[in-house]
């Protein structure tokens, strides 16, 4: 009799234990947010926020699948606000121009790690161009002496730093009658077309849009490394590798062509590859106040 009671007690204990385990498993499965990490993806404002959210939707979907994390999108009102958000750790994964990456990495190497570099027509480098109106009589950098020049955003690689150093090295910069920072690349193109400036610095794909409207390319810069995907301190090494593998192995072209029609994928590069650009930036910053 006593043995039967002990057996029944042990059986009941086993059932209760199994029930408790089942409840705990169900509770865990019913709470995915407790297991899933969340990140903020951000970009410098090369388009308006609504457009940017659409541009990066394919990439964010890819990275959510690769990491199992929930990723939200955030933009910024200007380049400076974006930089501040990155340094403050308010953005975890970011797409940014090479000059911003080179500057932030030099000043805050603990705040930013390079994941991958965009490939433009198969290469992780690109060039800036300087344009003028076809009917202007301006054909070389030397022809810009005494002229008015349009830069884009002060922090832009292709519409500020590269054209500025080109003008300096050509011995033209100090002779300019006037120069202005006009914001986005399209602003530069339109200002030159409308005659407010005699020439301006652009990225090639924007320049191409305006060639049949009256612009021409008069000079091309040296190659520098392209835009980057980078991460902040919140992203651990294992997740960084998942992001890197997903980008480099991306099968859906929309992941990169939605950013730039000329992009053909992503490549693994080193932060040291941006050293030459940092030299250019220092030279320009010494000449033009930020």
Task: Describe the protein in words.
It is a single chain. With 290 residues, this protein is an alpha/beta fold. It has twelve helices and 13 strands. The protein has helices spanning 2-29, 32-35, 49-55, 57-67, 79-87, 98-107, 157-169, 185-193, 204-210, 237-248, 254-257, 275-287, and strands at 38-43, 70-74, 93-96, 113-120, 125-126, 129-133, 148-151, 178-181, 199-202, 215-220, 224-225, 228-231, 263-267. The chain has a six-stranded mixed sheet, sandwiched between helices. It has a five-stranded mixed sheet with strand order 8-7-9-6-10. Helix 7 links the parallel strand 7 and strand 8 (178-181). Helix 4 packs across helix 10. The longest helix has 28 residues, at 2-29. The radius of gyration is 26 Å and the shape is globular. The relative contact order is 0.17. The model is unreliable at 19-34 (pLDDT under 50).
């Amino acid at each position: 009799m006593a043995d039967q009671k002990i057996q029944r007690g042990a059986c009941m204990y086993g059932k209760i234990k199994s029930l408790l385990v089942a409840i705990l498993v169900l509770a865990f499965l019913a709470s995915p947010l407790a297991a899933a990490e969340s990140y903020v993806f951000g970009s410098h404002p090369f388009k308006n926020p609504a457009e940017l959210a659409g541009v990066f939707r394919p990439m964010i979907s890819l990275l959510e699948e690769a990491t199992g994390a929930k990723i939200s999108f955030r933009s910024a009102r200007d380049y400076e606000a974006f930089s501040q958000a990155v340094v403050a750790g308010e953005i975890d994964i970011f797409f940014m121009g090479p000059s911003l990456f080179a500057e932030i990495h030099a000043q805050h190497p603990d705040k930013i790690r390079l994941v991958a570099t965009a490939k433009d027509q198969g290469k992780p480098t690109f060039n800036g161009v300087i344009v003028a109106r076809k009917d202007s009589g301006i054909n070389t950098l030397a022809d810009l002496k005494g002229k008015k020049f349009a830069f884009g955003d002060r922090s832009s690689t292709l519409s500020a730093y590269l054209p500025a150093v080109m003008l300096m090295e050509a011995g033209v910069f100090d002779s300019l009658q006037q120069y202005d920072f006009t914001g986005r690349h399209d602003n530069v193109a339109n200002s030159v077309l409308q005659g407010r400036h005699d020439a301006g610095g652009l990225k090639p794909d924007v320049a191409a849009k305006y060639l049949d409207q009256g612009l021409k390319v008069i000079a091309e810069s040296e190659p520098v490394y392209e835009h980057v995907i980078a991460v902040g301190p919140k992203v651990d090494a294992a997740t960084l590798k998942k992001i890197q593998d997903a980008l480099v192995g991306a099968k859906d072209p929309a992941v990169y062509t939605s950013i730039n029609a000329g992009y053909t994928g992503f490549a693994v590069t080193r932060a040291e590859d941006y050293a030459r650009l940092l030299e250019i930036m220092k030279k320009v910053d010494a000449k033009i106040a930020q």
